[in-house]
Design a protein that fits this description.
The protein has a single domain, classed as Electron Transport, Fmn-binding Protein, Chain A (Pnp Oxidase, Chain A, Roll), CATH 2.30.110.10. The longest helix has 10 residues. A hairpin with a 5-residue loop joins β4 and β5. It is of the alpha+beta class. The chain is built from four helices and ten strands.
Length: 152
């Protein structure tokens, strides 16, 4: 559905396709009963699950295993006042099967930090939503106004 201001909702397939275009996203989870956001590198795996690689003993791995989390990635061109944002919500799980871990290592997703004991976190996409802003016809009414207006 396109709106007069250039904002268009993306269908599930377009959202998943756009996730393959950027290497960085943000993981939103709960840490000590408070919301936490962490920038992460990621890839998409079978059945379009978001996959992260981290330390098996990290606070992150323990906090998200079995929890419902949100993942968000986006891309913006400020000069053109265009961009997109995709959100994935699902129940995160630490990958424990050694064969599956080896398969994921072969995919090439690397942690940014050297870790002695690594693991993978998989987030199956239960809810996928996205928006595309294709430039504001009047150039926008201030920084980000068209993007932030009316998120329903």
């Amino acid at each position: 559905m396109e709106r007069e201001n250039g904002l268009r909702m993306l269908d599930r397939q377009e959202c998943l396709r756009r996730l393959t275009l950027v290497p960085i996203g943000r993981l939103v989870y709960t840490h000590e009963a408070l919301p936490a956001v962490l920038p992460v590198n990621f890839s998409l795996d079978q059945e379009h699950a978001v996959v992260l690689r981290t330390s098996a003993v990290s606070r992150l791995a323990h906090a998200v295993d079995g929890a419902v989390v949100a993942f968000e990635a986006d891309w913006f061109d400020e000069a053109a006042r265009s961009g997109w944002s995709v959100s994935v919500i699902g129940r995160a799980a630490v990958v424990t099967d050694p064969k599956e871990q080896e398969r994921l290592r072969a995919v090439g997703l690397r942690s940014w930090l050297a870790v002695a004991q690594d693991t993978f976190i998989r987030i199956p996409p239960e809810l996928v939503t996205g928006r595309l802003l294709e430039g504001h016809p009047r150039g926008g009414e201030g920084r980000g106004a068209a993007w932030l207006a009316d998120v329903s």
